[in-house]
Design brief:
Pfam families: ADH_N (PF08240), ADH_zinc_N (PF00107). InterPro entries: ADH-like_C, ADH-like_N, ER, GroES-like_sf, NAD(P)-bd_dom_sf, QOR-like. GO terms for molecular function: mRNA 3'-UTR AU-rich region binding; NADPH binding; quinone reductase (NADPH) activity. It is a single chain. By secondary structure, the chain is of the alpha/beta class. 30% of the residues lie in helices and 26% in strands. It folds into 2 domains: 175 residues, Quinone Oxidoreductase, Chain A, domain 1 (Alpha-Beta Complex), CATH 3.90.180.10; 123 residues, Rossmann fold (3-Layer(aba) Sandwich). The protein contains 10 helices and 15 strands. The strands form 3 sheets. Strands 3, 4, 5, 6, 7, 14 and 15 form a 7-stranded mixed β-sheet that branches. Strands 10-9-8-11-12-13 form a 6-stranded parallel β-sheet, with helices on both faces. Strands 1-2 form a two-stranded antiparallel sheet. Helix 3 links the parallel strand 8 and strand 9. Helix 2 crosses helix 3 and helix 2 crosses helix 9. The longest helix has 21 residues.
């Protein structure tokens, strides 16, 4: 059976995403081979495709997916053929079949679909570590979350609601109802409102305990103005462009602020931390605490169209790429 994948031979726009026939070797020691059922689409995929994040070409983008184990390499005892698994690892996700380290795969519960499992691995676990680990959100906290209507944002709203924290989001006006439906207490129209001024108004000048900013270049400096003294800015993406160098002296001037640039993989580096994170996330999905809405589905071979939609802000919620479509 032939196997196909999206290959990037040179970085650039969405047009560099090419659907090609590829060979996949037998799984090596400690690896499993999976036939993928769903692959998650994420902004980080565009960073690698464009060259913003370095990768040695040719490469296959994609960091999360779900499917069935079809072969196990030497020494693998955790999984066997036919097991349903999900993962988030480095590159290689945009493929019909792939090998990956068995210790990076997790079992999918019966009450969670392939599609939900795929998009929960990067977006879901990202929202979970941001609100439960980078800053351990409490019921009396006030939060600003940029891109509230995006895949991570909609999950974060529900986690904050579950915890009981007050969460304020930025989103375009037409997506406010969607974000409210996913747990947000107030929304700011970033196209027509100064979000820092609105935060001052909404909080009666008290400002926020933490700001989560995945937009980057166009928002980060103003995000600092939304924080109360000793507040935390969590910069976890840069969809608007690379963040300019930050003068650390500003942090003291603005109230002894904290800034961090975390990544999911540090938070799930050990097997135990990965299992803890996915157990909690799949538990939320299973009992309805968190609902992840699949806003768009594209055939994997149409990844170029998916990237154009994502970068054009035409997507809502999570997007999956389907190898069998």
């Amino acid at each position: 059976m032939s196997n196909h994948a999206i290959i990037v031979e040179e970085t650039g726009g969405p047009e560099v995403l090419k659907w090609k026939e590829v060979d996949v070797s037998a799984p090596g020691p400690g690896e499993v081979r999976i036939r993928q059922k769903a692959v998650g689409l994420n902004f980080i995929d565009t960073y690698f495709r464009s060259g913003l994040y370095p990768a040695d070409a040719p490469f296959t983008p994609g960091n999360e997916g779900a499917g069935d184990v079809i072969a196990a390499g030497e020494g693998v005892t955790r999984f066997r053929e036919g097991d349903r698994v999900a993962y988030t690892v480095g590159l290689g996700g945009y493929s019909e079949e792939r090998n990956l380290p068995a210790d990076r795969a997790v079992s999918i519960p019966d009450n969670v679909s392939y599609e939900l499992a795929a998009v929960a691995m990067l977006k879901g676990l990202t929202a979970r570590y941001l609100l439960r680990k980078t800053h351990d959100l409490k019921a009396d906290d006030t939060v600003l979350f940029h891109a509230a209507s995006g895949g991570v944002g909609l999950i974060a709203g529900q986690i904050a609601q579950h915890i009981g924290a007050r969460i304020i989001g930025t989103a375009s006006k037409e997506k406010h109802d969607l974000a409210r439906h996913h747990g947000y207490d107030e929304l700011i129209d970033y196209n027509n409102e100064d979000f820092a001024q609105r935060i001052k108004q909404l909080t009666n000048g008290d400002l926020c305990d933490v700001v989560y900013d995945s937009v980057g270049k166009t928002t980060l400096m103003k995000s600092l103005d939304c924080l109360r003294p000793m507040g935390l800015l969590v910069s976890f993406g840069q969809s608007s462009g690379k963040v300019d160098p930050l003068d650390l002296g500003l942090l003291s001037q603005k109230g002894s602020l904290f800034v961090t640039r975390p990544t999911l993989y540090n938070y799930i580096a050990s097997r135990s931390s990965l299992e803890e994170a996915t157990e909690e996330m799949f538990g939320w999905l299973g009992d309805g605490t968190v609902k992840i809405e699949i806003g768009q589905r594209f055939a994997l071979k149409d990844a170029e169209k998916a990237h154009r939609a994502l970068e054009g802000r035409e997507t809502v919620g999570a997007t999956v790429l389907l190898p069998d479509a």
